[in-house]
Design a protein that fits this description.
single chain, about 270 residues, alpha/beta, Spore Coat Polysaccharide Biosynthesis Protein SpsA, Chain A, 2 domains, four-stranded mixed β-sheet, 8 helices, about 20% strand
Length: about 270
């Protein structure tokens, strides 16, 4: 059974080569690019990818478009800052060779941050459903936490990790938090969710305890501590921005579906 790997990009020249190197075993690579101003497209073509330059239409819609133009029904969606290890590649190839027993497969995602692999906090195992039959699966349209949903059957689970390099440094991490908390607050507001300053004060400490203690972020040393702090900050900022929206202090732009963002990659986003 043949497989198409899909990647959505914008200005990912610094990342995409590693991603494409890790999937050269696939039958087809499709890159849907949102008008990159760097060498993203040239690098993708150098690796034999079929490149389609497509106006940004939102995270899920862009990913679904990439699946629609694929030559094969089985699709493996990755991001430019992700890498497919040889063990995961072999596991996927074995499933496709022997015949899938599910309509989609989720896999644990392992992130590299501040010089180490992170195996605690909300960041791990961070299961992602990325390998799927496009005839029964598509991304669900959410502004953040977008994921593949299957119209029939339950997904299988793969053993090996999808490797993730989400942030260049702490500054990049904080900038990403500001961007995605805006999208998350807008999504909550559109769904009718409301909050209060009290909730914004109480939830972040609980998020820190969940990340650092219950999910054993302490085992990841300083990196685990910083992730736990910044995940708590994410929760705090998301609730504050939602409160701004409901008080009319911030405009709801409906930006998650139409505005081309700075980031097309999917970072580690707390719930």
């Amino acid at each position: 059974m043949k497989l198409t790997v899909t990647v959505i990009t914008r200005n990912e020249a610094a990342n995409i080569e590693g991603a494409l190197q890790s999937v050269t075993w696939a039958d087809e690579i499709v890159v849907v690019d949102s008008h990159s101003a760097d060498d993203t497209v040239a690098i993708a073509r150098r690796y034999g990818a079929r490149v389609d330059v497509h106006e940004w239409v939102g995270y899920s819609a862009q990913r679904n478009y990439a699946a629609e133009i694929a030559s094969n029904d089985w699709v493996f969606a990755i991001d430019a800052d992700e890498r497919v290890s040889s063990a995961l590649a072999q596991e996927i190839q074995k499933i496709l060779r022997e015949g899938p027993t599910a309509n989609g497969y989720r896999m644990p995602r392992l992130s590299f941050y501040l010089g180490r692999w992170i195996r605690g906090t909300d960041w791990y195992p961070d299961y992602q459903l990325r390998l799927y039959d496009r005839r029964v699966g598509q991304f669900n349209g959410k502004r953040v936490h977008e994921s593949v949903e299957l119209s029939s059957g339950s997904p299988g689970t793969l053993r090996h990790d999808l490797q993730h390099y989400p942030y260049r440094d702490i500054s990049d991490h904080v900038t990403s938090i500001d961007h995605y908390t805006t999208l998350a607050a807008e999504e909550w507001f559109a769904e009718g969710r409301r909050t209060s300053p009290l909730e914004a004060a109480l939830h972040p400490p609980a998020a820190f305890l969940r990340n650092f203690v219950m999910r054993r972020g302490f085992r990841d040393g300083t990196a685990g501590f910083l992730i736990s702090i910044l995940n708590s900050y994410y929760v705090f900022l998301k609730l504050l921005k939602l409160w701004e929206l409901q008080k009319g202090l911030r405009d709801s732009t409906e930006a998650g579906t139409t505005r081309r963002p700075k980031f097309e990659r999917r970072p580690n986003i707390p719930v």
